[in-house]
């Protein structure tokens, strides 16, 4: 919802840095307080509820660790991000094992800071422990990409909850923008590891030499710039969950190293000699078909089978078009509050255009379009002419759809009914005539296939 209703607290005895972080987050729209000493921060925490506290670790008098422990006793749902120099990384890691969200190493990267704050707030909304708190946090956080009543998305969430209690590795496959990390966090939050860290790493974001150090840590002097020992993501996730995003981009050496860790439960930091035992649950994700990469010789077959003990396939938005109205309503409400605009709704024709479009960027693309419309449309009702050109241009031709070999007859029938109602006509009587069945039969099939929202 409205970011101005989300209260953050920045704590650092270095006044310039504290003011800089405060200003950077204020520009994002948050309400941000600042304190230059931990006791002052503690008084603020006692007087109001903060969604997130960013605190330096090393401060005179009361340290950031002491502040973290005191504050957690008062407000368990407040998230913490530790700001630390190399010399105090171990303290930050200790805090993460006790429930802190993450840490940042100084000098701070403000872009990374903004991303981490957004993720921490989203995580906070998922970890809410009761209905009252969940309602309060949902109003502050970004809307979920997993909203929907379709059988496809309900099946994903059911499976995520079912596997959460075990420690088996999970492989989440889905196109970009479908919400793979949110599914991974859902699994973590429903598991016995929920109070331990959830650590994520994008395997495609690092060159091969840096990825090894990122995953397994490095010893002081292991390479140029390694000024101190640094724990890897496996160590940070000890006792919790490690989310490996874009696992299909893991280089061959990284694949071998990961397989060894999964089999032996130990890591060796780059430049180090000591074997460190880690207790980590792995959830991996990819926007590629790993089975195809295995056949092409680009991904290890033994690692593939080790990762996909439980596979979860996230459907693209075009396969759950019945969820689009719910998603749009959620996004319009959120962005109207965020940008302080009047509440908007889509006219029926505009909604049908959105349901007919295949959305190659999936829910993330839909979300971005809705934010643009909230800002650019003056009227409370968004009509078809207000929609971006690519939506109306696509609708000028009737798109074909593909029946894949191996689909069941029920899956093909469900797809045909959905395509008829979203691309040919939304009138149930007319749709039944086109399909060659009675309106009563169509209604029965809509209920059978969970398509009543179309």
Kindly report the CATH topology of the largest domain. Rossmann fold
By CATH reckoning, the class of the largest domain would read Alpha Beta
Amount of helix: 40-55%
**Class computed from helices, strands and strand pairing:** alpha/beta
Question: Could you report the average pLDDT, rounded to the nearest whole number?
Answer: 85
Number of domains: 4
For the report, how would you describe the main beta sheet?
Answer: 5 strands, parallel
Poorly predicted regions: 128-140
- Distance between the ends: 27 Å
> What Rg do the Cα atoms give?
24 Å
Number of strands: 14
Global shape: globular
The CATH architecture term of the largest domain is: 3-Layer(aba) Sandwich
């Amino acid at each position: 919802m409205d970011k101005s209703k989300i209260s953050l607290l920045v704590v650092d005895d270095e006044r310039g840095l504290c003011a800089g972080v405060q200003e950077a987050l204020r520009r994002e729209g948050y309400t941000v307080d600042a304190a230059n000493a931990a006791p002052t921060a503690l008084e603020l925490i006692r007087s109001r509820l903060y969604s997130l506290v960013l605190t330096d670790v090393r401060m005179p008098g009361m340290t950031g660790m002491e502040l973290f422990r005191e504050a957690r006793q008062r407000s368990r749902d407040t998230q913490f991000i530790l700001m630390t120099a190399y010399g105090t990384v171990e303290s930050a890691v200790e805090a993460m094992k006790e429930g802190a969200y993450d840490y940042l190493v100084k000098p701070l990267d403000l872009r990374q800071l903004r991303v981490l704050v957004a993720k921490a707030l989203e995580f906070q909304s998922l970890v809410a422990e009761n209905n009252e708190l969940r309602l309060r946090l949902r109003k502050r956080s970004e809307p979920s990409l997993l909203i929907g009543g379709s059988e496809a998305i309900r099946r994903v969430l059911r499976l995520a909850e079912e596997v959460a209690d075990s420690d088996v590795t999970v492989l989440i496959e889905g196109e970009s923008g479908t919400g793979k990390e949110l599914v991974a966090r859902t699994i973590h939050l429903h598991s016995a590891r929920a109070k331990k860290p959830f650590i994520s790493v994008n395997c495609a974001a690092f060159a091969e030499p840096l990825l090894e150090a990122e995953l397994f840590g490095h010893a002081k002097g292991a390479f140029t710039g390694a000024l101190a020992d640094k724990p890897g993501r496996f160590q940070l996730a000890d006792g919790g969950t490690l989310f490996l995003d874009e696992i299909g981009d893991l280089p061959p050496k990284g694949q071998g190293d990961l397989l060894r860790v999964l089999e032996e439960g130990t890591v060796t930091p780059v430049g180090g000699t000591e074997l460190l035992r880690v207790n980590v649950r792995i959830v991996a994700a990819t926007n590629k078909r790993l089975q195809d990469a295995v056949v092409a010789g680009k991904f290890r077959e033994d690692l593939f089978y080790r990762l996909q003990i439980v596979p979860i396939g996230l459907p693209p938005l075009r396969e759950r078009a019945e969820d689009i109205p719910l998603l749009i309503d959620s996004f319009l409400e959120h962005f109207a509050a965020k940008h302080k605009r009047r509440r908007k709704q889509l006219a029926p024709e505009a909604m049908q255009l959105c349901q007919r479009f295949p959305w190659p960027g999936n829910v993330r693309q839909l979300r971005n379009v809705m934010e643009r419309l909230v800002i650019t449309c003056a009227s409370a009702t968004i009509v078809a002419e207000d929609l971006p050109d690519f939506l109306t241009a696509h609708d000028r031709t009737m798109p074909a759809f593909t029946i894949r070999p191996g689909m069941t007859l029920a899956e093909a029938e469900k797809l045909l009914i959905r395509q008829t109602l979203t691309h040919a006509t939304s009138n149930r009587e007319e749709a039944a005539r086109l399909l060659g069945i009675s309106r009563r039969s169509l209604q029965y099939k809509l209920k059978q296939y969970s398509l009543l929202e179309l």
